[in-house]
Amino acid sequence: MDLPIIDLVVFLVYMAAIVLFGISFSFRKRTALEYTTGGGRLPSWAIGMSIFATFVSSISFLALPGNAYLSNWNGFVFSLSIPLAAWIAVRYFVPLYRNLQSESAYYYLETRFGPWARTYASVCYLLTQLARMGAIMYLLALPMNALFGWSISLIIICTGISVIVYAMLGGIEAVIWTDAIQGIVLIGGAVLCLLVIMFSMPNGPGEVFTIAAEADKFSLGSFEFNFVESTFWMILVYGLFINLQNFGIDQSYIQRYITARTEKEAKRSTWFGSLLYVPVSLLFFFIGTALFSYYQVFPDLLPENLKMAENADKVFPHFIVSGLPTGLTGLLIASIFAAGMSTVSTSINSSATVFLSDHYRRYIHKNTTEKQSMRVLLIASFVMGGLSIVVGLAFNGVTSALDAWWALSSIFSGGILGLFLLGFVVKKAPGKAAAIGVLCGVLVIGWMSLSPVLFTGTSLEGFKNTLHTNLTIVMGTLTIFIVGFLLTGLFSKTKNVTAK
C-alpha cells in the first residue's frame, strides 16, 4: 500500500516533535541523581501516565486487538489481576523503596542476602530489557513492512536511534514527559479508531455487539481449573505474578516511585497508571472484536492473506491504513510507534541507572564524581540502546517473535520475584537459603521453558513440561520462595541444636 502524503507528514512531524521535545531536557544542568530520578519533583499524573505507557507497548497495541479478533477476551483477564497487584504495591512496595533512598531496585536484595543477590537480579533485569526492547522494535516493524513494504531492518534502526537520542540526552524527565504525551496520543488514536469502526456498520454501532455475541467473542475463557490450557484461572494467576514482578522488582516501575515528590504522590501515580491500563486494554480488546464484526459485514475489504490465523495481528494495521480518513491514518501509525517508543525509552533509562548503581559504582569505581557518573549514564544508555537494535535485528526471521520473547523473559526474569518475596516475607531467611532457592528455581524455569523443545521426540518425552508456558514464572517464583522458606526453618533448627 502507498501511504498518502498527508499521513506521512503527520507521522514524520509527530516523530520529529517527540525527539526534539525529549532533547530539550538535555539543556538543563543536572546531577546524576536528577538524571535518574528527576530530582523527585515530577507531578504524579505524569508519572502515572509513564507507568501506564510502560505497561503498553507495540506488543499490546497490535497483539491485543489481534487476539480479540482471532478468539475472545480471555487475554483481558490479565488486566483484571492488576488492581490486586497495585494494591499490594501501594501498601507495601512503594513505602519500602521510598525509604531505602536508593535509585536501584536491587539494593534491597543486597541488604537482605548480600552482593550476589543484587548482582544476580540486576544482570537478569538487563538481559530481560535487551530481549524486551528487541522484540518490541521487531514486532513494531512487522506490520509496517507488510503494509508499506518498508524495510524491517531500516524501521528497527530508525526507531532505535530516535529513542536513543532523547532517552540518552534527556534522562528520566524526558522519558516521563514523552511517555505522558505518547500515552495521550495512544489513547486518543485508539478511541477515534473504534468510533470509526462502530459508525461504519450499516445498521449502526449495535450491529458490532450483535455479530460478536453470536460468535461468543466476549467470553473470558473457560472457568475450569485447567492449567494446561489458557483458561480464566490460568491467565489470572499468571497476570498476578507478572504484575507483582512489575511493581515489586522491576527497575522500570520502581524508579518512578522515587521520582514523585512525596510517598503519597508516588502511591497516587501507581494507582493512576496501573488502573488506567485496565480500561485501555479493554478498549484494545473491543477494537479487535469490532474489527471481527466489521469484516464479517465487509469481507471483501480484507485481503485473503490476512484471513489466515497467523496474520491476525496485521488486521488492525490494515484497517488503520485502508479504513480511516486521510490524516487520521498518520495519527494512528504514530500511536503504534508511540506505544513502542515509550516502552523502549523507559528500558534504556532504567538499564543505564542499574548499570551505574549496581555494577559501575559497586565493582569498578565506588567513589565516582558527578561528571564521571553522568558520563557512565550517557554511555550506558547509548550502549543499551545500540544493543537493543542488534537484538531487534536478530529477531528478524524468527518463526514467532512473541513466543521467543515470552521464552526469554521467563528464563531471564522468572526467578527475581521469588527472591524478592523470600526476602520481604521471610525476614530471617539467610543468604545461603536464598542462593539454594534461586538455583532450584532456575532449574525449574529451565526445565519448563526448554523441555518441550528438547525432549519432544526423544526417550525423555515423558518428562517434558505439560503446563501452559505462561506458568513458567509462577512455578519458578514458587520454587524459590518455598525452597528458601523450608531451608530457613531447617537452618534455624540446626543452629539451635548446635547451640545446645
SSE order, one letter for each helix or strand: HHHHHHHHHHHHHHHHHHHH
Provide mean pLDDT, rounded. 86
Radius of gyration: 23 Å
User: How many distinct helices?
Assistant: 20
The percent of residues in helical segments reads over 70%
**Class by helix and strand content?**
mainly alpha
Characterize the quaternary organization of these chains: single chain
Question: For the report, how would you describe the main beta sheet?
Answer: none
Low-confidence stretches: none
Give the tally of β-strands: 0
Approximate shape: globular
Q: Distance between the terminal alpha carbons, to the nearest Å?
A: 81 Å
What is the beta-strand fraction? under 5%
Explain what the structure shows.
With about 500 residues, the protein is mostly helical. The chain is built from 20 helices and no strands. The chain has helices at about 5-25, 30-35, 45-55, 60-70, 75-80, 80-100, 105-115, 115-150, 150-200, 205-215, 230-250, 250-260, 265-295, 315-325, 330-365, 370-395, 400-415, 415-425, 430-455, 470-500. α1 (about 5-25) crosses α9, α3 (about 45-55) packs antiparallel against α12 and α8 (about 115-150) packs across α16 (about 370-395). The chain is globular. The mean pLDDT is about 85.
